[in-house]
UniProtKB/TrEMBL annotation, chain A:
This is Succinate dehydrogenase / fumarate reductase cytochrome b subunit. The keyword Lipid biosynthesis does not apply. InterPro entries: Cytochrome_b-558, SQR/QFR_C/D. The chain crosses the membrane at residues 12-38, 58-81, 102-127, 162-180, 201-223. One of its GO terms (cellular component) is membrane.
From TrEMBL, chain B:
It comes from the Bacteria. It comes from Sunxiuqinia elliptica. GO terms for biological process: aerobic respiration; respiratory electron transport chain. Belongs to the succinate dehydrogenase/fumarate reductase iron-sulfur protein family. This is Succinate dehydrogenase / fumarate reductase iron-sulfur subunit. PANTHER family: SUCCINATE DEHYDROGENASE, SUCCINATE DEHYDROGENASE IRON-SULFUR PROTEIN. SUPFAM superfamilies: 2Fe-2S ferredoxin-like, alpha-helical ferredoxin. Residues 154-184 form the 4Fe-4S ferredoxin-type domain.
Length: 227, 251
């Protein structure tokens, strides 16, 4: 096993499994976040966020998730560097668009842009909730239980800042583009594809990517349009 | 009616493996649109010889699309602007009168340039030598139905075996990955009973050799499949991944 990660397929395998893990996270993340737009009092989302923050299973998964992100990001640089070395002299004229999609060729660039978004996103929410705190987060009581008002933190940002709302929509679209290729590619890499499943996975991947992109875009747009 | 065209060609010239290369521009005129791309190259070379210049070195052999010898990266695509063909099968009717055509060699660390447009594809043979065979003598042609093989498996093995090892997959891939080639060579044996015995050893050995020779990794862009003159499917790559991972995890 020791040199498994030095083989080209081993390297890709790690990108694939971390990618699949992050996709599972993103589904949970979207589900909880959509509670934001179904209850304008904020109680529903606050309960959801409180459940996620106090649930022991989630507490265990949090560091695993952080590790998943780190491995996926750092390892992508290792893999890309290895792949660049395989073509020291490039072509003068390239006509790539005939044979492959833009997203598939630029997963590193898409990933880097998503990383920029991720840093901003963590500073705005996760960091304030877990570390620095924020006046907006003062406790509210929902159903007899006291909890942080995370709804106020999120809703205020989207209501007050058009710029950040746009940034979140762009982030969602970038993630969608990353997933259009990433979804089926992850299954292809772990060997779960054949001539029939390749087509199915591409369709499912496209649908999945569109749901993620639209789902996350709807949240800031909802606050911008309604309030 | 025969039509003729005039072209400007930008061709990569390089005197030897260690020499510095450069693009040179040539004019060819009255090229019949019925001629093949390599015939056009022949005409250009005749022209160069008559001018006492060194003709352009390029690979070719059977000129009927089955040997895999001809290469050439034409206008940004391996084997030029047509689907499912090798360069010898590319016709000049695919080009417009007055067009500028850029001709480059395959670009990959594992395919060093020998001269001009000729690259050394020995790396492919080295990968085959690492495990792309069945070690025991399986005798003559077995009686029909003596070894039951599912029709689907037989079809897929046959499709994989149609790979001619031209290297267009490596040339098309942004990572210069040889995964389509290796996956076809692993699949044609892994799908059949005669090849299953050594499947694990073969997948590991061929992937290890591919990595060692400096080919890049697969990022599933699918460019190889589109540019492959024999239409080898990237589902073979998933099979190779499966075979390789199974072999590694069972160690």
């Amino acid at each position: 096993m020791s040199n498994f990660l030095t083989t080209s397929i081993g390297r890709k395998f790690l990108m694939s499994v971390t990618g699949l893990f992050l996709m599972m996270f993103i589904m949970v993340h979207l589900t909880i976040n959509l509670l934001l737009i179904f209850d304008d009092s904020g109680d529903l989302f606050n309960q959801g966020a409180h459940f996620m923050a106090t649930n022991p299973a989630i507490k265990i998964m949090e560091p695993v998730l952080a590790l998943g992100f780190l491995v996926h990001i750092i390892w992508s640089l290792v893999v890309s560097l290895q792949n660049m070395k395989a073509r020291p002299i490039g072509y003068k004229q390239l006509n790539n668009s005939q044979s492959s999609s833009w997203a598939s060729r630029n997963m590193l660039i898409l990933g880097a842009l998503i990383f920029v978004f991720l840093v901003m996103h963590i500073i705005q929410f996760f960091w304030k909730i877990k570390v620095t705190g924020d006046p907006l987060l003062q406790h509210v009581t929902v159903g007899g239980e006291e909890m942080e008002n995370t709804y106020a933190l999120v809703a205020t940002l989207f209501k007050e800042s058009l710029l950040y709302s746009i940034a979140y929509v762009v982030g969602a679209i970038l993630l969608g583009m990353h997933l259009v290729h990433g979804f089926w590619s992850a299954f292809q890499t772990i060997g779960f594809a054949n001539q029939i499943w390749l087509k199915r996975l591409k369709v499912v991947g496209a649908v999945f990517a569109i749901i993620i992109a639209i789902g996350f875009s709807v949240i800031p747009l909802y606050f911008q349009i309604k309030f | 009616m025969e039509k003729t065209i005039n072209l400007t060609l930008k061709v990569w010239r390089q005197n030897g493996p260690k020499e510095k290369g450069r693009f040179e521009t040539y004019q060819v005129s009255n090229i019949s649109t019925d001629s093949s791309f390599l015939e056009m190259m022949d005409i250009l070379n005749e022209q160069l010889i008559s001018e006492n210049k060194e003709p352009i070195a390029f690979d070719h052999d059977c000129r009927e699309g089955i040997c895999g010898m001809c290469s050439l990266y034409i206008n940004g695509r391996p084997h030029g602007p047509d689907e499912d063909i090798t360069t010898c099968q590319l016709h000049m009717r695919k080009f417009k009168d007055g067009e500028t055509v850029t001709i480059e060699p395959w670009r990959a660390a594992a395919f060093p340039i020998i001269k001009d447009l000729i690259v050394d594809r020995t790396a492919f043979d080295t990968i085959i030598a690492a495990g792309g065979y069945v070690s025991v003598n399986t005798g003559g042609i077995p009686d029909a139905n003596a070894i039951p093989i599912a029709k689907v498996a037989a079809d897929e093995a046959m499709d994989a075996a149609s790979c001619i090892g031209c290297g267009a997959c490596v040339a098309a891939c942004k990572n210069s990955s040889a995964m389509l080639f290796v996956s076809a060579k692993v699949s044609q044996l892994a799908l059949l009973p005669q090849g299953k015995v050594e499947a694990k050893r073969r997948a590991k050995a061929m992937v290890a050799k591919m990595d060692e020779l400096g080919f890049g990794g697969c990022t599933n862009t699918g460019a190889c499949e589109v540019e492959c003159p024999k239409n080898i499917s990237i589902s073979n790559i998933s099979r190779l991944n499966r075979e390789f991972l199974k072999a590694r995890f069972s160690d």
